[in-house]
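Folding problem:
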Amino acid sequence: MWPERYLVDGYYDEKEYLRREIIVEHAKQVAGMLAERGLTSASMRRFYSKVLGITNKFRTLGNFDMVRPQIDKLEADVAYAVKRGVVPPAFEAFIQKNVRLATVSQKGLLGFFQHFQSVVAFSPNTEGGGQRFHGNSGNRRPDKPTRR
């Protein structure tokens, strides 16, 4: 289920640098596992946006104690999402494991943010919509007529 030794050594190595497996190997494995258990990329992005907001607030205020309750609140938010059937229990476990480290220190919060960002980046598109089209008219969906 979880990568071997997942978060056992925290986010940082002995030199206080973010560990490679946190942003690459473990992030890939966690992203795949959560997708297999039915977590949609939209649900994941919703929670990632909350973590991004908390991180930005911390960076702006420079006061970790002021954002710490918001980090703790992620556990209640994800529990509610599980009860509603919006996210699988595995995602609740992911949030719980990471919140434990993120609430220890500001460095923990930043490590969680970077790890979660990588998990989102490695997540497959689980919306069922297939390829997405963006940009100018050269990338319009061929099955959709263009308005003039």
In short: The chain is about 60% helix and 0% strand. The helical segments are 20-23, 25-36, 41-61, 64-83, 89-102, 106-122. Residues 128-146 have pLDDT under 50 and may be disordered. The radius of gyration is 17 Å.
